[in-house]
Amino acid sequence: MALSGDLATMGLEDIFQWLAVGKKTGVLELRGSLHTKRVAFHEGRITSIWSSDPREYLGQYLLAFNRITEEQLRDALATQEDEQQLLGRILINRQLVTEAEIRRIVQLKVEESIYDTFLWNVGSFEFHDGAASHQKSMLLSLDVTGIVLEGARRMDDWKRIRKVIKGGDAVLAPISEAIAERLPLATDDADILARLDGHKRVDQLVLDMRMPEYKINKLLFDLHEKGLVRILNSGGNLGENPSLQLQRARALVEKQKLQEAQEELRRILKDQPRHLDASKMMAVVQDLLEDKKLDQDLIPELAVSLDELMTTNLGPNEAFLASRVNGLWAIRDILTIAPFEQDECLAIFSKLIKRGILKTTKPAQGGHQPDALR
């Protein structure tokens, strides 16, 4: 039996329970405003998930847990492309992680990716009965009940969080006196407090710590409840909530109907000039329309001093990419470790080059990098 519809009319709790009770085998496709996910089921249990969101790739989770370095991830991904092996298997063979660690992190990745969908405001779903996932990944066998309960709990949490921390543009600062009275702190609390400087936005913390948006916001919310941080700017001025218009614009981009996507995005930005996701997508569309294919083998370098860079007004994603420019890695290398989509990365690089913040050089020896970087 096929099942499809809108998440506004049939919630994820009901969908997952229907699949579990019916012991269904197949693939549940979930389409949000910006990303698509495919959850594989076998006899009512979850076996794997595929996500178009680069923040949910296995490599990003391994970096978040400090199990590998960015250099090790870049090198392993290059091997994966050449040899068509699973990333986890490559890292196990290199004795960088154990099989038990990979399994634990893969399960966490699957769970967090599903929990994220419970926080979507808009989206659609379709269950492909009997379909195979065709995804090369470590297979799990997760019970739906626990995931549904946790997803529902996070939905309730998110409503409370958003009343205090209203968006990714929120800024918080630590309260030193209160912190001193609470020592020693939990590891996650200490880590995030050390990164708060009264200027860094929440969305920048999400990138820096490579943690799910929910977890960063929950940590900050709990610290605020304990009186350990103060809110300097509650945020919510970026129009972050996805909209049906944004979903339509994304679909148009996927179909390469760029002019129509641009018009849809213009309508959004006319009503909400600071809509973060619409602004990001517009930058990508404009770059694609210009049809300026940036050579990914070029090596980016800073065209300004570090002092100038620190005082330059950069968005979180721009700052992330600029901080990875070392004069040795090619654009292609940086793309492999970035927690956002390739088109967005290329659009950001083009923008930073046009602004005179970055410059590029051709790789030496006909494009071959030194062995130490391969």
Description:
The structure is a single chain. The protein is α+β, with helices and mostly antiparallel strands. The protein has four domains: 3-160, no CATH class; 164-233; 244-290, no CATH class; 299-373, Arc Repressor Mutant, subunit A. The chain contains 17 helices and nine strands. The chain has a five-stranded antiparallel β-sheet, with helices on one face. A two-stranded antiparallel ribbon has the order 6-7. A hairpin with a 4-residue loop joins strand 2 and strand 3 (36-42). Helix 5 (99-117) crosses helix 6, helix 11 (244-254) packs antiparallel against helix 12 (258-271) and helix 15 crosses helix 17. The longest helix is centred in the N-terminal third of the chain and has 19 residues, at 99-117. The protein is globular and about 60 Å long. The chain starts with a strand and ends in a 13-residue tail after the last strand. Mean pLDDT is 89; it is low at 370-374.
Brief rundown of the structure:
Pfam families: DUF4388. With 374 residues, the chain is an alpha+beta fold.
Largest sheet: 5 strands, antiparallel
Helical fraction equals: 40-55%
Q: Strand order, main sheet: write it out.
A: 1-5-2-3-4
Range of strand content: 5-15%
Task: Give the H and E element order.
Answer: EHEEEHHHHEHEHHHHEHHHEHHHHE
End-to-end Cα distance, whole Å, is: 49 Å
Please count the helical segments: 17
**Number of structurally distinct domains:** 4
Query: How would you classify the helix and strand content by structural class?
Result: alpha+beta
- Poorly predicted regions: 370-374
Number of strands: 9
What is the typical, i.e. mean, pLDDT? Answer: 89
Choose one word for the global shape: globular
Which value, in Å, is the CA radius of gyration?
21 Å
